[in-house]
Write a structure and sequence with these properties.
- The complex is a heterodimer.
- By secondary structure, chain A is of the alpha+beta class.
- Chain A has 2 domains: about 1-55 and about 250-375, no CATH class; about 65-240, no CATH class.
- Chain A contains 13 helices and 12 strands.
- In chain A, strands 1, 3, 4, 5, 6, 7, 8, 9, 11 and 12 form a 10-stranded mixed beta sheet that branches. Chain A has a two-stranded antiparallel ribbon with strand order 2-10.
- In chain A, a hairpin with a 5-residue loop joins strand 7 and strand 8.
- In chain A, helix 1 (about 1-20) crosses helix 10 (about 300-335) and helix 2 (about 20-55) packs across helix 11.
- By secondary structure, chain B is of the alpha/beta class.
- Chain B has a single domain (about 5-220), classed as Rossmann fold.
- In chain B, about 35% of the residues lie in helices and about 30% in strands.
- Chain B has 7 helices and 10 strands.
- Chain B has helices at about 45-50, 75-85, 100-110, 120-130, 145-155, 175-190, 200-205; strands at about 5-15, 15-30, 35-40, 60-65, 70, 85-90, 165, 195-200, 210-215, 220.
- Chain B has a 6-stranded mixed beta sheet, with helices on both faces.
- Classes of the chains: A alpha+beta, B alpha/beta.
- The interface of A and B includes residues 5, 19, 291 and 293 of A.
Chain lengths: ~375, ~220
């Protein structure tokens, strides 16, 4: 009870001292608030960036491929579907199968590729298409090199002849609905719906390569690969390393930059708090000297200033955490175009870090305070 | 004997020379004695007072207060000892502006832990005796110089010390206010507290039982 009264008296002394120097304390509080806001905002962004950037990174194209295992030429669609089912559905953006075969048109050899056009845009968003994807039977899309060589444009007819897997010959007149340009091997291919190709080839739907676009980090992708390998004997999953490594590298650099900015802001916060508290100590030299003269020991002087620092740190941390959430939300909305997911445990962590940073910043001013010589300051030196 | 000072000396370097602000001072103070030290500015009075209060370390000599050699104690122990045994009234205004009169008086009580004791009732009694109860919730900014000095004296009493040390307690005050202050000191003295006061006001010195004079660091009995 008596100790509570003592504590109440000391608390009142500390608060009244803070309020009395409110303009100086407001400067320190502003510094701590900015530091805490940047800390929470940046760390929240660092946590959320892989999720935020996941969609943007997918413009690089697929980041995983399935190829047949055990020297088999193709994979069946049920086996592919079973492997895809092992992946978290919310992270799978697109699964595009590719089936390759040789055909002739006007005596020229071409590679025809059966695929699922509804998935191609998801795994290969960089394809530039003039016209549109085939939507019906007897429709094809051709690469830009094929179009140039055969002098074809959208809407033209193209005769395609080949041999089915059962040994019979086919010859079909197809309508070109679109011309694709990728700058890669796709420019020399003829694309057709996988279902239509399997009918021409008189076989079940199957694929030689499946490209997958998944919003996941390199480590998560490696885990998915291990899961598929341990569950499927016919499918051999692989990372597309240049894509995943680019993503990891970009994310790493971005995170490092954000953490560096946060560190710099925290150091600046410490300097701001230390400078303000140093001024406060200088202003209160006579008060400190007086307290020492009437019996205060160094520990109680130090405790008082550290308690002031702690209060500043906690109050600044709370205001800063609120501002940080708004700050992160505004950045996320403006830069990534979607709202951010707040990790709520970061809020108390930010307040604790603010309090620690402020108390550490107060150490030098506190040292100055305990060094005050009452005999000197009380006679005005 | 409450206070025993032996061969006390405090020297400061001044350029290439060393100047003794207090030079080989010896004196004693009995329980319930009222002693004034007079002297010109720069004679070493305040330096002597600060050493007796444990605020300055002497170059040589010994101060025994209530059978304790002050300089055998470490910094924190000196602070606690001063808090419990010495009431210190500094020169000039010495109240904390952010605390009320009552809080200023109670402040020394909270600077050293005192389990099971309270200061509120005693602080109110002190204010009542000094006829200042009406001011208990006032802040120093709304008080006169004389009122602030009297509050500083009451603050020195809150821990019920055996000795009160006052440095020029009536400086810058008019005669009437100075007389009020000295009456307060006389009341304190009559209740059994020893007083050691530094002043250069002869009217103030007349209240004391013994007057010592200080000149060039030397202390002489009048």
């Amino acid at each position: 009870m008596v100790m509570n009264k003592n504590r109440r008296f000391i608390t009142k002394t500390i608060f009244s001292s803070l309020i009395r120097r409110r303009s100086r304390i407001a400067v320190a509080l502003l510094g701590i608030t900015i530091g805490a806001a940047v800390l929470l905002g940046m760390v929240t962004l660092c946590y959320d960036i892989p999720r935020q950037m996941g969609q943007e990174f997918r413009s690089y194209g697929a980041n995983m491929v399935f190829i047949p295992n055990n020297n088999q030429p193709t994979m069946t669609m049920p086996a592919i579907q079973a492997a895809v089912n092992l992946l978290p559905s919310e992270k799978v953006l697109g699964v595009t199968p590719f089936r390759y075969d040789a055909v002739r048109s006007n005596m020229q050899p071409y590679t025809i590729v059966g695929t699922d056009f509804s998935q191609v845009t998801k795994t290969s968003p960089y394809w530039q298409i003039t016209g549109q994807f085939p939507t019906q039977a007897q429709q094809i899309m051709i690469g830009v090199d094929v179009a140039n060589m055969a002098a074809l444009k959208v809407g033209d007819k193209m005769m395609i002849a080949g041999k089915s897997k059962q040994g019979s010959r086919f010859e079909e007149e197809m309508t070109v609905t679109g011309i694709v340009k990728t700058g890669r091997s796709e420019d020399g291919f003829i694309f057709i719906n996988l279902h239509d190709l399997s009918q021409l080839l008189e076989e079940d739907e199957q694929a030689e390569v499946v490209e997958l676009s998944i919003t996941a980090s390199e480590n998560e992708l490696k885990q998915y690969i291990d899961t598929i390998k341990s569950n499927s004997t016919t499918i051999d999953p692989h990372l597309i390393k240049w894509v995943t490594q680019s993503e990891t590298s970009v994310l790493g650099k971005l995170s490092s930059l954000l953490y560096l900015v946060t560190l710099v802001v925290l150091v600046l916060t410490m300097i701001c708090v230390a400078t303000t508290m140093m001024t406060v100590v200088m202003e209160r030299r006579k008060e400190i000297g007086l307290k020492k003269a009437i019996g205060a020991d160094n520990k109680s002087i130090a405790k008082e200033f550290l308690a002031e620092g702690l209060i500043l740190g906690i109050v600044g941390g709370i205001i800063g955490a609120i501002c940080g959430i708004i700050f992160a939300q505004v950045i996320s909305t403006n830069v990534f175009g979607r709202s951010i997911m707040i990790e709520f445990y970061l809020i108390p962590l930010t307040i604790v870090i603010s309090a620690v940073v402020t108390v550490v910043a107060c150490l030098i001013p506190v040292k100055r305070a305990v060094e005050v010589k009452p005999a000197l300051v009380l006679r005005g030196e | 004997m409450l206070l025993d000072i032996k061969n006390l000396r405090k020297a400061y370097p001044r350029g290439k020379q060393t100047v003794a602000a207090v030079d080989n001072v010896n004196f004693t103070l009995q329980d319930n004695e009222f002693v004034c030290i007079m002297g010109k500015s720069g004679s070493g009075k305040t330096t002597l007072l600060n050493m007796i209060a444990g605020l300055l370390t002497p170059t040589q000599g010994k101060i025994t207060l209530n059978n304790t050699n002050l300089f055998d104690l470490d910094d924190n122990a000196v602070s606690a000892f001063r808090n419990q045994h010495i009431g210190y009234v500094p020169q000039g205004s010495s109240l904390l502006p952010n605390l009320t009169v009552l809080e200023n008086i109670r402040l020394p009580f909270y600077l050293t832990p005192r389990l099971g004791k309270q200061s509120l009732a005693y602080a109110q009694t002190l204010l009542e005796k000094a006829k200042m109860s009406a001011l208990q919730d006032a802040y120093p900014a709304n008080m006169s110089g004389g009122e602030m000095r009297r509050v500083a004296i009451l603050r020195a009493l809150i821990c019920q010390p055996k000795l009160i040390i006052a440095d020029e307690p009536t400086s810058d005050l008019d005669e009437e206010t100075a007389a009020d202050i000295m009456q307060l000191f006389m009341d304190i003295h009559q209740q059994g507290t020893a007083l050691l006061m530094v002043t250069h006001d002869n009217d103030v010195a007349r209240y004391s039982q013994r007057v010592l004079t200080m000149a060039k660091g030397k202390l002489n009995e009048n």
